[in-house]
Amino acid sequence: MSVTESTPAPSRPMRINPWSAGAVVIALVVVAPILSVLGIALFPSENIWPHLLATTLPRYLMNTGILMIGVGILSAMVGTGAAWLVSRYEFPGRRWLEWLLLLPLAIPAYVGAYALVDFLEYAGPVQSALRGLFGWTSAQDYWFPQIRSMGAAIFVLTGSLFPYVYLLTRAAFREQSGASEEVAQSLGTGGFGRFWRVGLPLARPAIAAGMAIAMMESVNDFGTVDYFAVQTLTTGIFSVWLQANNAGGAAQIASVVLFLVIFLVLIEKASRRRMRFFNLSTRHRPVSRKHLGGGAAWLSTLACTLPFAFGFVLPASVILSHAVANADHWRDSELWQAGLHTLTVGGLAAVITVAAGVFLVYGVRVSRRPLPRLLMPVTTIGYAAPGAVLGVGILIPLAALDNTIADAIWGATGWDPGLFMTGTSFALILAYCVRFFAIGQGAADAAMGRVSPNLSAAARSLGRTQGQVLAVVYYPLMRASVASALLLVFVDCVKELPATLLLRPFNYETLATRVHEQASLENLGGAAPAAVLVIGVGLLAVGLLARANR
Predict the structure, then answer these.
(1) Is the Cβ–Cβ distance between 436 and 486 less than 8 Å?
(2) At which of 277, 301, 336 does a domain end?
(3) Is residue 338 one of the residues assigned to a domain?
(4) What is residue 177's three-state secondary structure?
(5) How does 141-154 read in b/e, with b if 16+ C-beta sit within 10 Å?
(6) 3-state helix/strand/coil string of 223-291
(7) Which of 27, 30, 457, 546 could form a disulfide with 375 if both were Cys (CB 3.0 to 4.6 A apart)?
(8) What average pLDDT does range 301-305 have in this prediction?
(9) Model confidence pLDDT, tens digit, residues 331-386
(10) What was the pLDDT predicted at 2?
(11) First-to-final CA distance of the chain
(12) At 388, is the pLDDT very low, low, confident or very high (cuts 50, 70, 90)?
C-alpha cells in the first residue's frame, strides 16, 4: 500500500503596500516631535524639575491659567454676542460687519501688541492728547493704566482670537430652526430670553469649540506675552533653554504645556459629544432676522463695530502709518531677504504638508490596514501643540543626529560637511509641516469624502493603478480644496513666531522674526513694513475663509 505525501502549498511572500507604509511613515514623522518632548522630559541629562516646582513653574502656571481663562471668557462673550446680533437682527451696516468681524484673524496677536503699546504709551497720541487737553506736563500729574500688563495681553489676544468663536457660533445660529424661535416668542419670551434659553444652549458646542481654539492659541503665543513682560509657560521654555541652557528643563515645561493643551482638546471633544441636538422637523425653516429700529439698531451696530475696530482697524492703522512715515525702510535689503526666506520656507512647507496630507488620507483609504487608520487621528495633535513645544521636540534630537552624521563623515573622509538639518531651514520646514499638518489632512479627508467610491472602482476596473486613480480621478475633483489648504498652511507659516525663533538658522530672518526683533528694540518704524506684509498675507486667508462661509 503506497502512501502519497501531500505537498504543502507554497507560502505567499508578505507584500508591503506602499500606500499603507507611506501613510505610517508620514504619521510617525508628525507624531515624533511630541514623543521626543515626552522622552526628553522623562529622561533629562540634568533634572531641574524640583527646582522648577519650587521656583518658577507655579508662576508660569498661574499666569498661563489667568491668560487662558481671560481670553477664553472674553472671546466667548464678544464672539457669541456679535454672532447672535448678525444672525438674528437687521441693523445698519449688518451685511458689512458680518464679514468685517473676520478681519482680526489677519492681524497676528504680536503685531496687535506692538500697535497698542505705540498707541497708548506715554509718547503716543492718546496720552499726548490728554496732556495737551488738560495742561499736564508729566506722568506724575495724572494716572494712566499700565500698558504692558496681563490685562493688556488678554485684551490684545481677545481682539485677535474672538473671530474663532464668532465664526463657529454664527454658523451654529444660522443652522438653528426658526420653529424653536417662534415657539419661544409665542410663549412671551423676549429677545434676551430667546438668546439665553433657546439660542445659547443649542450653540453651546460651537462656543466651546471656539473657546478651546482661542485658549490653545493663547497658550501658544510668545510675541505678545514676551512684549508685555508676562511670564507664561511658553516664555519659560525660552528662558530655561536659551538663558539657563537646560534643554531637559525646557522639555519638562514643554510637556506641561502639552498636557494642558491635550486637556483642552479633550474638554472640547467631550462638550461636543455630550451636547448634541437634532432637528426633528422634516421641514427645516431658517430663522428670519428681525428689523431693529431707533437706539437698539445703532447700539447693535456699535456693539459689532467695536470688536472690529479694536481687533483690526486700530493695529492696522498704527502699523500702516508707521510704514508710510518710514518709507525708507521699504528699501532695506534685509526686509526683502526676510520676505524671500518667508516665501521659500512657507511655500515649501505648504506644498509638503498638503501633499503628505493627501498621501496619508488616500493611503488609509486604499490600504484598509488598521495601523494607518489608528494613526491618522493622532497626527492632528501637532496643530494643538504650541510652536515652542515642537521646537524643543525637533531641535534637540535633530541636533544630536546632525552632529553624529557630521562626526562620522569627518572621521571617514576628513571633510566637515556641517550641519545638514539644524544648520539649514530643514528643521524649520519640518516644524511647520508638523504644526499645520492637520489643515492639509483635514482638507484632503473632507475633499475625498465627497468623491463617490464608484468613480475609483470604475477606474480600477479599467486597469488604472492606485496612483493613477489619485491623479486622474481624485485630484481634479479636490483641486479647489487642495489650493485652499495650500494657502491656509502658507499663511499660518508666515505668522508663526515661536517655532521660527527657535529653529531658524543663524542670521536667518523671516517676516515674523523681523517684526519681533525690530519691535523688541522699540523700532516700530523698522518693524512696520514687515508687519504690513504679514497682514497682507493674512487678509488673503481671511478672504478665502469668508468666501467658503457665505
Answers:
(1) no
(2) 277
(3) no
(4) strand
(5) eeeeeebeebebbb
(6) HHHHHCCCCCHHHHHHHHHHHCCCHHHHHHHHHHHHHHHHHHHHHHHHHHHHCCCCCCCCCCCECCCEE
(7) 27
(8) 94
(9) 999 999 999 999 999 999 999 999 999 999 888 888 777 877 888 888 888 777 88
(10) 47
(11) 85
(12) confident
Alpha carbon distance 422, 214 (integer Å): 31
The answer to whether residue 29 scores a pLDDT higher than 60 is yes
* Residue-range definition of the domain harbouring residue 401: 345-508
- 26, containing H or E segment: helix 18-42
| The 3-state secondary structure of 336-387, one letter per residue | HHHHHHHHHHHHHHHHHHHHHHHHHHHHHHHHCCHHHHHHHHHHHHHHHCCH
Please determine, for residue 11, whether its predicted confidence score (pLDDT) is greater than 60.
no
Return the amino acid letter for 403: N
Q: Residue 480: which CATH number?
A: 1.10.3720.10
One-letter amino acid of 192: F
**Residue 219 sits in the same domain as residue 367:** no
Question: Quick check: 281 pLDDT over 60?
Answer: no
The grid coordinates listed for 314 are 486700530
Average pLDDT over all residues of the chain = 85
Split into its structural domains, the chain has a count of: 2
Answer yes or no: is 23 within a domain: no
* 387 and 243 both lie in a single domain: no
